[in-house]
């Protein structure tokens, strides 16, 4: 069964979620307007799936010129250098404005390839083909694309909506356990910020999710995408409510940056960050300590970390937060929590409070 989530707004697109979607060459090729299709993937995903996608596209449209380009796996590939390399490859490929980039991989590939598509000739089509749970529930949807700098996460980027998203759940069978758990952190985020019943559902289905039960995973993906779609179609450029999707991220990005993008992965950092944000909310009188305990217990049960890694300098973490994209006029803004299903953006949070919330 293929589940569909439609994302409305000024440039609507469809998210398809189902087993085997990467072999549907006709569906993939229907989004290519010209003759050039560049499949961007990483060193783990390329040998597993890239040839299949290229063959499926080619079979559906024999006139298409397909190329596969492979980046190293991992967050450190989300760099300006790799971005420049992709642009040079698009040039060498002769990609014209009707070319299409297929981002086949996790959030790293999606963000990097999406950013190259956003910039090449001021914007060409991009189709997201997420192969991690995190990319299926979050990064492939909504059009945020970016690369990191040593000074901070996602500091250089653009909003560039995908033409379509195909989440082939069969690819999750090869995903390492650690990456599956990372994706579950962003799933928990949706329950935490806007759907108390979904948070209950995740608690009830935690074992099935960890055991990769296919229907349970597909339901988690579809419900997560529906939440993200509802927000990003109303606020595509994060002028307001989209910031709620950043719950836990001010802490998470500071940790990832301070670890040089080689420590916790994004989902793990978000798990820690959400607990810090919940603690901060309790300190500021918005949440009760019991809610923080409940959130931490669920994340632990899902195999995720909930404590700031030992050895990180708290002052350095707060210094990174000053470059958080939600900060305004030199003051920190946080997504804070008032318990299951309820979050809000709070301006002017004192750095001393953020420091104390690190635990
Ligand atoms: N744009 C957004 O809205 C948004 C949202 C959330 C996260 N992100 C970004 O996404 C990135 C994290 O994405 P991620 O968690 O997918 O990490 P990732 O892209 O690094 O993938 C995780 C690992 O899994 C491997 N992998 C991917 N699919 C596989 C498969 N099917 N089988 C086997 N191995 C596979 C990858 O090679 C990599 O080693 C971060 O950079 C984060 O900032 C962006
Ligand atoms: O789509 C969004 O908006 C999000 O904030 C989703 C986050 O999970 C994601 O990690 C995003 O890349 C963070 O964006 P940033 O603007 O804080 O860099
Ligand atoms: Zn995130």
From TrEMBL:
NAD(+) binds at residues 107-111, 131-132, 144, 153, 171-174. Residues 70-181 form the 3-dehydroquinate synthase N-terminal domain. It is an enzyme of class 4 (lyase). Keywords: Amino-acid biosynthesis, Aromatic amino acid biosynthesis, Cobalt, Cytoplasm, Lyase, Metal-binding, NAD, Nucleotide-binding, Zinc. Its EC number is 4.2.3.4. Zn(2+) binds at residues 186, 249, 266. It catalyses: 7-phospho-2-dehydro-3-deoxy-D-arabino-heptonate = 3-dehydroquinate + phosphate. The keyword Amino-acid biosynthesis applies. It holds the Pfam family DHQS_C. InterPro entries: Dehydroquinate_synthase (IPR050071), DHQ_synth_AroB (IPR016037), DHQ_synth_fam (IPR030963), DHQS/DOIS_N (IPR030960), DHQS_C (IPR056179). It comes from the Bacteria. Binds 1 divalent metal cation per subunit. Can use either Co(2+) or Zn(2+). This is 3-dehydroquinate synthase. It comes from Noviluteimonas caseinilytica.
């Amino acid at each position: 069964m293929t589940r569909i989530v439609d994302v409305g707004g000024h440039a609507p697109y469809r998210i398809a979620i189902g087993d085997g979607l990467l072999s549907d060459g006709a569906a993939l090729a229907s989004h290519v307007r010209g003759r050039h299709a560049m499949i961007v993937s990483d060193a783990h995903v390329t040998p597993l799936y890239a040839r299949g996608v290229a063959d499926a596209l080619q079979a559906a449209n024999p006139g298409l010129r397909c190329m596969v380009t492979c980046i190293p796996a991992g967050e450190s590939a989300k760099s300006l250098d790799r971005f420049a390399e992709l642009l040079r490859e698009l040039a060498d490929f002769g990609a014209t404005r009707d070319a299409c980039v297929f981002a086949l991989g996790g959030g790293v590939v999606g963000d990097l390839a999406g950013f190259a598509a956003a910039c090449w000739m001021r914007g060409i089509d991009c189709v997201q083909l997420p192969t991690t749970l995190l990319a299926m529930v979050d990064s492939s949807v909504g059009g945020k694309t970016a690369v990191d700098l040593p000074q901070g996460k996602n500091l250089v980027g653009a909003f560039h909506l995908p033409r379509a998203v195909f989440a082939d759940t069969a690819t999750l069978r090869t995903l390492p356990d650690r990456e599956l758990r990372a994706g579950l952190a962003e799933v928990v985020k949706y329950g935490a910020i806007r759907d108390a019943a979904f948070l209950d559902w995740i608690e009830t289905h935690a074992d099935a999710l960890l055991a990769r039960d296919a229907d349970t995973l597909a339901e988690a993906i579809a419900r997560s995408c529906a939440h993200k779609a509802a927000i990003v179609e109303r606020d595509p450029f994060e002028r307001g409510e989209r910031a709620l999707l950043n719950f836990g991220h001010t802490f998470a990005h500071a940790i990832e940056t301070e670890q040089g993008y080689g420590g916790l992965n994004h989902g793990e950092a978000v798990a820690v960050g959400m607990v810090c944000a919940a603690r901060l909310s309790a300190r500021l009188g918005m949440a009760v300590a019991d809610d923080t305990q409940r959130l931490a217990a669920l994340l632990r049960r899902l195999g995720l970390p909930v404590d700031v890694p030992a050895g990180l300098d708290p002052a350095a973490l707060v210094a990174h937060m000053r470059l958080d994209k939600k900060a305004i006029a030199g003051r920190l803004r946080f997504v804070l929590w008032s318990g299951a299903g309820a979050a809000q953006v709070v301006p002017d949070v004192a750095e001393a409070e953020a420091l104390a919330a690190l635990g």
